[in-house]
Amino acid sequence: MTQATLSVPDISCNHCKMSIEGAVNELDGVDKVEVAIDDRTVDVSFDSPTDMDAIVAAIEGQGYEVAAS
Ligand SMILES: [Cu+2]
Fold first, then answer.
1. Residue 68 CA to ligand 1 centre (angstroms)
2. What is the CATH number of the domain that holds 25?
3. How remote is the CA of residue 28 from the centroid of ligand 1, in Å?
4. What is the Å distance from ligand 1's center to 20 Cα?
5. Is 68 domain-assigned?
6. C-alpha 11 to ligand 1 mean position (Å)
7. pLDDT tens-place string over residues 29-61
């Protein structure tokens, strides 16, 4: 299991949280995803077949940019 925290500066409200968590949860292999609105971060635990690129793509697909870490 891989755990990662992504910085997503445009997260601002509960709608952002729901959109991002919903999209990431749809990926096969994602165990847990949690958006921290105040910190503007996405905590995610995942395993294959998903990977970091797929998670970033899912977040970007919702219209949010993931900051380089
Ligand atoms: Cu929002």
1. 20
2. 3.30.70.100
3. 25
4. 10
5. no
6. 6
7. 999 999 999 999 999 999 999 999 999 999 999
